[in-house]
Write a structure and sequence with these properties.
The complex is a heterodimer of chains A (about 110) and B (about 110).
Chain A lengths: L4 E3 L2 E4 L5 E6 L6 E8 L3 E9 L2 E5 L6 E5 L5 E5 L8 E8 L8 E2 L3 E5 L1
Chain B lengths: L2 E5 L2 E5 L4 E8 L5 E7 L6 E6 L5 E4 L2 E5 L3 E6 L8 E8 L6 E3 L3 E6 L1
Parallel strand pairs in B: 2-11
Antiparallel strand pairs in B: 1-3, 3-8, 4-5, 4-9, 6-7, 7-8, 9-10, 9-11
Classes of the chains: A mainly beta (about 110), B mainly beta (about 110).
Chain lengths: ~110, ~110
């Protein structure tokens, strides 16, 4: 069974640009969560989607958005990039909304110059 | 607000030297406490879920325990391949959000 796949693996953008990151969950998993990981703040929850609906949202500005498609694949978008958005963005999938066990992808390393 | 604090931030041990990692949490109505392991360049990998005080889980050289205020990850006779960042996370009663601590970077010297 294939794991969680995130693309691209690395991304370099400049301030003011926007970026879209993609996540394909494990087959059969319907819950997808996104996290931002930085050395200073650790893993911070962005949002969670289940059956194309956003179930939870973390404390991030509206520049961060996401969506989920009918096949459970998910995308997150960051508009008007800032230097502080440089981070590893991790996607995790789970078979149920209880999220008792999250399966993470390897992440997208975003660098904003 | 739910909070998770892990200590120490970093720990260096000699191979075979046992120790414990601490995870303190503040959440009303804990639904679950989780331990993950993260290797450089990879996403976290699930290790354990603990649900109630007094519960223990074991896997190879790792044992996780839970009290009403904290959890410990005990590592017995560690090997260099146990070197990684260990993350603790909690889930509260209101929604299914998983909140992570900042992790403990463990380095086992051969």
């Amino acid at each position: 069974k294939a794991g969680v796949t995130q693309t691209p693996r690395y991304l370099i953008k400049t301030r003011g640009q926007q970026v879209t990151l993609s996540c394909s969950p494990i087959s059969g998993h319907r819950s997808v969560s996104w996290y931002q990981q930085t050395p200073g703040q650790g893993l911070q929850f962005l949002f969670e989607y289940f059956s194309e609906t956003q179930r939870n949202k973390g404390n991030f500005p509206g520049r961060f958005s996401g969506r989920q498609f009918s096949n459970s694949r998910s995308e997150m978008n960051v508009s008007t990039l800032e230097l502080g958005d440089s981070a590893l963005y991790l996607c995790a999938s789970s078979p149920a909304t209880t999220n008792e066990k999250l399966f993470f992808g390897s992440g997208t390393q975003l660098s904003v110059l | 607000e739910d909070q998770v604090t892990q200590s120490p931030e970093a720990l260096r041990l000699q191979e075979g030297e046992s120790s414990s990692l601490n995870c303190s949490y503040t959440v009303s109505g804990l639904r679950g406490l989780f331990w993950y392991r993260q290797d450089p360049g990879k996403g976290p990998e699930f290790l354990f879920t603990l649900y109630s005080a007094g519960e223990e889980k074991e896997k190879e050289r790792l044992k996780a325990t839970l009290t009403k205020k904290e959890s410990f990850l005990h590592i017995t006779a560690p090997k260099p391949e146990d070197s990684a960042t260990y993350l603790c996370a909690v889930q509260g009663p209101v929604d299914d959000k998983i909140i992570f601590g900042k992790g403990t970077r463990l380095h086992i010297l051969p």
